[in-house]
Amino acid sequence: MKILVVEDEKKTAAFLSKGLREAKFRVQIARDGEAALTAARPGEFDLLIVDIMLPEKDGWTLVRELRETGVGTPVIFLTARDSVRDRVKGLELGADDYVVKPFAFSELLARVRSLLRRTPAKSDEIRIQDLEIDTRHHRATRQGVALNLTPKEFLLLTHLARAGGEVVSRKEIAENVWDIGFNTDTNVVDVVVRRLRAKVDDPFKKKLVHTIRGVGYALKPS
Predict the structure, then answer these.
(1) Which of the two ends of the chain, N or C, has the fewest CB atoms closer than 10 A to its terminal CB?
(2) pTM for this predicted structure
């Protein structure tokens, strides 16, 4: 399960990230509303935890715009604003829960798990042209031919596929596939992408793995 934490206060973001990772969630941090709006593509995250007081675009506006564009990812507002009016506003905008600061992490974690239990799971099957990915059984085929991917290659392929054709940066891949901070001197992402391309694309006429120079990678039809 993957969670986007939208929080500009560094200590709070680090605290949430550490606790959620220890609870076996994958975590990505967005520091402002604009960055979160860009990151929160449909199908990319299982849950958003959103502070209301954010730079660039506040949490109210972020969630409203996400809902208006069809992003139905569950949202928990996390904020110091505890009036009934604010709680009602958050829920009316499309949030699924509202947690007031200060809070016990154990309570937040219980709410996260409860909300995820109520949310329909993502489809186990992803299809992009003749590429089929079975996330439940960790299998990938193209034109019916098994691709025989390593666990990291499969995780990378799935991550790219869930982006819906959008470009995924090397930084995001490093953080979410390897759970490490991105170092520009490290070419581990490029090495594994090359191995993945050799299996997914090289034996076939149509290419699906695309390099966006200076930005990252995308998985989409040519």
Answers:
(1) C
(2) 0.57
What confidence tens digit (pLDDT) does each residue in 9-59 have? 999 999 999 999 999 898 999 999 999 998 887 678 889 999 999 998 999
Domain ranges of the chain: 2-118, 125-219
Q: Which are the contacts of 26, defined by CB distance < 8 A and separation ≥ 6?
A: 1, 2, 3, 176, 179
Tell me how far apart the alpha carbons of residues 130 and 147 are, in angstroms, rounded to a whole number: 12
Q: Confirm if 162 and 208 have CB atoms less than 8 A apart.
A: no
pLDDT band of 185, cuts 50, 70, 90: low
CB 83 within 8 A of CB 71: no
CA 175 to chain centre: 10
DSSP assignment of 39-61? H--TTT-SEEEEESS-SSS-HHH
CATH topology assigned to domain 125-219: Arc Repressor Mutant, subunit A (1.10.10)
Instruction: For residue 6, list its beta bridge partners.
Output: 30, 50
What CATH code is assigned to 2-118?
3.40.50.2300
